[in-house]
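Title: Comparing notes on inverse folding

I've been comparing how different people in this forum approach sequence design from structure. To keep things fair, I'm posting one structure and asking everyone to reply with a full sequence. Here's the target:
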């Protein structure tokens, strides 16, 4: 349990606007100065999502030192956020003691794609961090990999064909591990893993898949969720395909419930075999996570917010659009993409078994 003492908070108002940001916030927690005695300390990063704060990352423990240095980087997914809260704790035998906290008001007026290093005052302490922001369009790069033999940046159908599987092994391996030890984790899929751990897993899946299972079983579960999300973000084509994206968006806007279901199901059944198989597998998985939402706090709506843009956002257009207008478009599209996925999750939860009547098993 974490105990909050009567400590001051440093509120840094970098911007006065009310922007709700979507995209990726990359935060590096460097070090803490100002402690006088050796102790075990760690930091927790929280962001607000439409008024409610969620824990999105936690550093490792720096043990028995008055000069903690973490130098850990986290990619925090933003979905309608405008505040980052960083809390510094001292680990205790019975409960953790809050040493200080700071609040950063997020805004595109000061955030950009280059790292900004900040030294933040907290009572007698000073926390050094670096921070940068990437919009939705910048975080999901649909580019074909130039390497050979890997899985990241490779068409999902090519990976399945090469592996002789219905669903790429990176997906099934990560999902099995998450269902084994992650269902009770608060904020599963929302809490960020350490970037270096995620990149290490990415490299293993690209270069050493035969030994990937043992690495996955030993890695922090938030790194496992991070690498599967990264895999889908880096597909050269969205899982729901670029070809059908506009049709899904139009079907989602239908007001007649019967016509909407008929349209959306028909589109899903029209997808390529590997995409369809993988989507159905993910829907099963996400519904299972939702079944323990009383513990992990991840409802279908929360899961759709996390995965919607990752699975549906098509390749970026070459059209030149002013930055502010582009950001508005990306935020609008993110709501549509999350809404489409939520529709299928809710339908799957109720009556989706009939979708499996169509033989979608690939022959090799």
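Reply #1:
Here's my take.
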């Amino acid at each position: 349990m974490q105990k909050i003492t009567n400590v001051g908070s440093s509120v840094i108002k970098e911007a006065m606007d009310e922007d709700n940001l979507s995209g990726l916030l990359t935060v590096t927690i460097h070090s803490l100065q100002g402690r006088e005695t050796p102790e075990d300390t760690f930091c927790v990063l929280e962001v607000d999502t439409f008024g409610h704060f969620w824990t999105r990352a936690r550093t490792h423990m720096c043990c028995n030192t008055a000069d903690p240095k973490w130098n850990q980087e986290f990619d925090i997914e933003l979905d309608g956020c405008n505040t980052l809260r960083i809390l510094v704790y001292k680990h205790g035998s019975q409960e953790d003691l809050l040493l200080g906290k700071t609040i950063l008001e997020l805004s595109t007026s000061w955030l950009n794609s280059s790292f900004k290093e900040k030294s933040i005052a907290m009572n007698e302490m000073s926390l050094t961090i670096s921070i940068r922001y990437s919009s939705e369009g910048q975080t999901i790069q649909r580019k074909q990999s130039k390497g050979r033999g890997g899985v990241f940046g490779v068409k999902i159908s090519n990976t399945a064909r090469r592996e002789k599987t219905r669903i790429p092994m990176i997906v099934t391996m990560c999902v099995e591990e998450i269902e084994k030890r992650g269902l009770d984790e608060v904020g599963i899929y929302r809490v960020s893993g350490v970037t270096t751990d995620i990149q290490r897993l990415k490299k293993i899946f690209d270069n050493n898949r035969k030994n990937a299972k043992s690495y996955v079983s030993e890695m922090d579960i938030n790194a496992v969720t991070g690498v599967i999300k990264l895999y889908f973000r880096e597909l050269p084509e969205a899982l729901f395909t670029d070809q059908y994206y506009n049709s899904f968006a139009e079907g989602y806007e239908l007001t007649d419930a019967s016509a909407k279901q008929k349209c959306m199901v028909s589109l899903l059944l029209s997808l390529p075999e590997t995409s369809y198989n993988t989507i159905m597998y993910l829907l099963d998985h996400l519904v299972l996570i939702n079944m323990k939402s009383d513990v992990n706090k991840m409802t279908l709506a929360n899961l759709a917010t996390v995965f919607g843009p990752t699975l549906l956002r098509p390749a970026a257009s070459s059209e030149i659009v002013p930055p502010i207008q582009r950001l508005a478009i990306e935020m609008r599209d993110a709501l549509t993409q999350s809404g489409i996925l939520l529709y299928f999750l809710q339908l799957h939860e109720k009556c989706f078994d009939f979708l499996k009547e169509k033989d979608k098993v690939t022959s090799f």
